[in-house]
Amino acid sequence: MDRIELYTSIVPNRRQLIIQEMKYYAFIHYGINTFTNREWGNGKESEKLFNPKKQNTDQWCEAIAEAGMKGAVLTCKHHDGFCLWPTETTEHCIKNSPYKNGKGDIVREVSESCKKYGLKFGVYLSPWDRNAKCYGTPQYNDFYIAQLTELLTNYGDIFMLWLDGACGAKADGQPIQKYDFERIWKTAVELQPDIVMSGCAPDVRWIGNESGKTRESEWNVVPKFEYDQQNFAANCQTDDDMKKFQKRCQDIMLPDMGSREFLKNFDEFMWYPAEVDVSIRLGWFYHPLQRISLKSLNHLMKIYYNSAGNNSLFLLNIPPNKNGLFAKSDVKRLKEMGKWLRKEDELVIKSAERTDKNNGYEIELRFGRQKVDRVRLSEDTTKSQRVEKFSVWADGKKVFAGTIIGFSKTAIFEPVITDNLTIKIEQCRKEPYIQKAEAVAAGAYRVR
Q1: What SS3 string covers the chain?
Q2: Average per-residue pLDDT in the chain?
Q3: Minimal CA–CA distance to 330: which of 266, 401, 282?
Q4: How far apart are alpha carbons 150 and 161 in whole angstroms?
Q5: Are β-strands 269-271 and 196-199 bridged in parallel, bridged antiparallel, or unpaired?
Q6: Beta strands in 255-346 (DSSP E)
Q7: Residue 243 has pLDDT above 50, yes or no
Q8: 411, 392 in Cβ contact below 8 A?
Q9: Which of 406, 400, 404 is nearest to 422 (CA)?
Q10: Amino acid 233: pLDDT
Q11: Do 396 and 437 touch, CB atoms closer than 8 A?
């Protein structure tokens, strides 16, 4: 098998196809840190601190749905070990809080609100636990699996398990826990066959930062990973130069992870789409003094187009406050995002499409003469990711030049008045399989 044949043989699994279709979903960081004004709790906090007075998970999910997102992932347990459901595994949980006199269950409330507003529900369960007495021992893996089993069997369909790699156990004077990730992944899929595993996990990888920065060319076909370490597996060529290369490059933050030039150094590959995780505010949890750090609509939509519009997934965090509500300013911003996206959808042009495979590979869109300023494209990724370079032309003039397409690409250009657009595939791994090509009339909002 030649190299190109090898690359194009790599395709997404069933779970990855599901998350690629979603593209854009929410993170909800909520827990004991909300009441201590911290980002990382120490695990010694009193359960009595957790006492939201006006909690309304319907408010959260309504705002998330209005923003155009397809699901929500809740921090069911963060690093402090406090559980937002009445678990049987520890007393450090909501059953010992004043909330609903110890009868509350935030996980159930969010899962039910998600159903009400047509959202999928996902869970974040931190592997690091600063409260569990068994942390650092082999017994902790059993403890973690018991918590995971509760979450994946008692709350209906779960679309995502988010596995955080953060750990400061060494600074705590704790032994470094060896997590049984293989068992975690196996248990998750056994209990929820459609679950997508993100982070230190085999389905979705972290983009490499929390600021919304993305690569110009984000490839899904990458060298085989050690998922738990987010490094390339040591299975590539073994000459001296490659040994140096591996030592230098075992890092998910590399600027290039999928070009032909980069892939030629490796022997085994996998489908591993990137996820861009960003908070709407400076911190992941709610902090009253950070209200001025709320990201502008323009900033958030720039991240959206660089992620969900550039072959990546967009995970946007919105933190509830001490009252158990999204801040009014955050809800307003989410509504503005939804309005932006709905307006773009409304301006999609119905067009006649003609494909010309003889003249290279071109797709021509014909429609009534009007002003247009973007094209939305996607490849059929069941045939892998193939397009390496493309351009968009209007009346014989190039208006956009790009690299990858993948499962989602929005090409935005200066408005032109025309009755046709041509998408030219200029470089490709074998023949392309374009699933969607649609022009959008000018009038949708533009990032500045």
Answers
A1: CCHHHHHHCCCCCHHHHHHHHHCEEEEECCCHHHHHCCCCCCCCCCHHHCCCCCCCHHHHHHHHHHCCCCEEEEEEECCCCCECCCCCCCCCEHHHCCHHHHCCCHHHHHHHHHHHCCCEEEEEECCCCCCCCCCCCCHHHHHHHHHHHHHHHCCCCCCEEEECCCCCCCCCCCCCCCCCHHHHHHHHHHHCCCCEEEECCCCEEECCCCCCCCCCCCCCEEECEECCCCEECCCCCCCHHHHHHHHHHCCCCCCCCCCHHHHCCCCCEEECCEEEEEECCCCCCCCHHHHHHCCCHHHHHHHHHHHCCECCEEEEECCCCCCCCCCHHHHHHHHHHHHHHHHHHHCECCCEEEEECCCCCEEEEEEEEEEEEEEEEEECHHHCCCEEEEEEEECCEEEEEECCCCCCEEEEEEEEEEEEEEEEEEEECCCCCEEEEEEEEECECCCC
A2: 93
A3: 282
A4: 13
A5: unpaired
A6: 269-271, 274-279, 313-317
A7: no
A8: yes
A9: 400
A10: 66
A11: no
The one-letter amino acid at 32: I
Q: Which residue has the tokens 């920065």?
A: 213
pLDDT in tens, 227-236: 777 777 654 3
Task: Give the number of residues written for the chain.
Answer: 448
pLDDT in tens, 308-352: 999 999 999 999 999 999 999 999 999 999 999 999 999 999 998
Angle (CA) 310-311-315 rounded to 5° is 90
Beta carbons within 10 angstroms of residue 283's beta carbon: 17
